[in-house]
Amino acid sequence: MAGSKNYNKTIEKIAVSDIRQFDSEASQLPGIIKLTLGEPDFNTPEHIKEAAIKAIQDNKSHYTPNAGIPELRAATAKYFNEKYNLNYQASQVITTIGATEGINASLQALLNPGDTVLVPTPVFPIYMVDTEINGGQFVTLDTSADDFILTPNRLEEAIAAHPTTKVVVFNYPCNPTGVTYSREQLEAIAAVARKHDLWILSDEIYAELTYSGDHISMAEILPEKTVLLSGLSKSHAMTGWRIGFILGPQAFIDQAIKSHQYMVTAPTTNAQYAALEAVSHGQNDAAVMKAEYARRREYLKTALEDAGFTLADPQGAFYLFAKIPDGKLQDWDFVRDLAQKARVAVIPGLSFGPGGEGYIRLSYAASMENIKLAASRIKDYMEGKYFDD
């Protein structure tokens, strides 16, 4: 029998992801080209698949330690240390069910009821939802007036207005904007966090897809108060394998392992052996994908600008965040009309919080063939020419 007294009130008020809902809705349209989800169109590299097959054949089908097999934790620490100038030990790594579980487990370990989490937006909405689920309260910080970058002044203002602030979320390169941060910008934010003794939850899942120079990790700059979240979904085209990582100070890891343990026990065993192969012998697996994403990015960026859109500076990830020209339909009206009349599905910026109004997010983790066709249809749509069934 339905009724509010029967369910968790926090869960009741949370909506199902409108991103996923619209993706499913658009999938029903004949001839639709979807630039909706952050799903690489590449396949997992063969050497990683072979490692998983061997693990199954070798009967690697039993429970592993909660934090993951020891050799994977050691190889993961080495992988991140060498790529991003970090200094982690194996004991400072937890293997998670994707970065998604890592976010939830980390917030569960950090938050007490009423603690505030500052979330720069536009951003993927999981951080806000997980904050509420874990008893905290989130405050969004609209970064659109500053080229989608959180400034130290804006952060100081937010801390002053919300003295219960405990955590600042960082996601860069950013989903949905593609914007990333320089060393100088990160150091300025780290100085504010250090001054106020704040944690930074740094989701760097797109680190290997950085197109303008090298990715700088917040964990290099503020190691004592940074929780680094990452995984293999984007870098190694392993979305369905569901392998992520939490890296952080040992005292934090000692708490987060409890959240992780009682949430999932441990990730799938054969997937961990695939991950071990990825971080041991797949250090350069992302390079081919990155080069192809860069090619697609430039093509789609030019096509959108030619069609009248202006874009956030897409320095990383595989998204373009494009401002809908004035005089056109906006937000959900634009997105649904585009899907119906042009057979191209994108996500409205509204789905990513304040600052996303009037924008659309397009994923270029699709084939170049589909990107070219989508770009052509968008151009026709903007000129009043519609898809012909």
Describe it.
There is one protein chain. The chain is an alpha/beta fold. It has two domains: 4-43 and 285-382, Aspartate Aminotransferase, domain 1 (Alpha-Beta Complex), CATH 3.90.1150.10; 47-281, 3-Layer(aba) Sandwich (Aspartate Aminotransferase, domain 2), CATH 3.40.640.10. It is built from 14 helices and 13 strands. The chain has helices spanning 9-12, 18-27, 46-57, 70-84, 98-110, 126-133, 152-161, 183-195, 218-221, 250-264, 269-281, 285-306, 331-342, 368-382, and strands at residues 33-34, 93-96, 116-121, 137-142, 165-171, 199-203, 226-231, 244-247, 310-311, 319-323, 344-345, 347-348, 359-363. The strands form three sheets. Strands 2-8-7-6-5-3-4 form a seven-stranded mixed beta sheet, sandwiched between helices. Helix 5 packs across helix 6 (126-133) and helix 5 (98-110) crosses helix 10.
